[in-house]
Amino acid sequence: MKRMASIERNTIETKIKASLSIDGAGQSSVATGIGFFDHMLILFARHGLFDLTMEIDGDFNVDGHHSVEDAGIVLGKALAKALGDRAGIKRYGTAFVPMDEALAMVSLDISGRPYLVFEATMPSERVGQFESELVEEFLRAFATHAGLTLHVRLLSGKNTHHIIEAIFKGLGQALDEATRVDERIAGVMSTKGKLD
User: Fold this and answer.
1) Cβ neighbours of residue 196 under 8 Å, at least 6 residues apart?
2) How many CB atoms lie under 10 A from the CB of residue 33?
3) H or E element in which residue 126 lies
4) pLDDT band with cut points at 50, 70 and 90 for residue 1
5) d(Cα 29, Cα 39) in Å, to the nearest integer?
6) How many Å apart are CA 171 and CA 122, to the nearest integer?
7) CB 149, CB 109: distance < 8 Å
8) With pLDDT > 90 as the criterion, what percentage of the chain qualifies?
9) Residue-wise DSSP of 32-96
10) Across the strands, what pairs with 120?
11) Spatial CB neighbours of 169, under 8 Å, sequence gap ≥ 6
12) Which domains does the chain have, with CATH numbers?
């Protein structure tokens, strides 16, 4: 059975439609209204081998904050829904991703207990129309609504584009590892018998 979910979120600030297939091939169609953010979500899908579609109609007359944060909410909810009871998944994933001079570590636990540790300083305030501080906002919203314990640490890096790209690629790779089904696992990967 293919693990997939579609989510819609409509508020005064944003209207978002998204579909996520965990067992995909890395195909994506993304239109968030922020070119660099589109690029990062496409990289996330490609390196996680997820199929992702997302469309956002946001209040860009204000800024990109609401759209990026709400994208994290919607993507997190889609992941949680697609995973279902989380039976048989490996649960943990870690990736170290280099992008030229940048090196990012992303480590996560699909624990049902949302928590974000984000240790990455962005040298530039913006990449194109994307505000660099929104990386942390996106990740917090995503981790909260997916039920992830998520650690992101920048080990080296001077170029903001490279840093953010390494983080999003790492997120995809770590999630790909954590969501894999292992036939040796009976039920969920927890001695408690549940993930939360």
Assistant:
1) 111, 112, 113, 147
2) 17
3) strand 126-127
4) low
5) 10
6) 17
7) yes
8) 82
9) -S-HHHHHHHHHHHHHHT-EEEEEEEE-TTT-SHHHHHHHHHHHHHHHHHHHTT-TTB--EEEEE
10) none
11) 43, 44, 47, 95, 97, 99, 104
12) 4-179 (3.30.230.40)
Look up residue 149 and give its two tokens: 């314990």
Three-class secondary structure of residue 168 per DSSP:
helix
The partner residues of 128 in beta bridges, in order of sequence, read none
Query: How many other C-beta atoms can be found within 10 angstroms of the C-beta atom of residue 85?
Result: 10
Q: How many CB atoms lie within 10 A of CB 8?
A: 11
The residue among 72, 46, 63 whose CA lies nearest residue 130 is 63
Q: What is the pLDDT of residues 10-33, one digit of tens each?
A: 999 999 999 999 999 999 999 999
What strands, in cross-sheet order, belong to the sheet with 14-21? Answer: 4-10, 14-21, 51-58, 28-31
Least confident range from 42-51, 157-166, 181-190: namely 181-190
Q: pLDDT per residue over 70-109, tens digit each? A: 999 999 999 999 998 887 789 999 999 999 999 999 999 9
**pTM value > 0.90:** yes
Say how far apart CA 8 and CA 1 lie, in whole Å.
Answer: 22
CB contact at 8 A, 52 and 74:
no
**Helix (H), strand (E) at residue 136:** helix 134-146
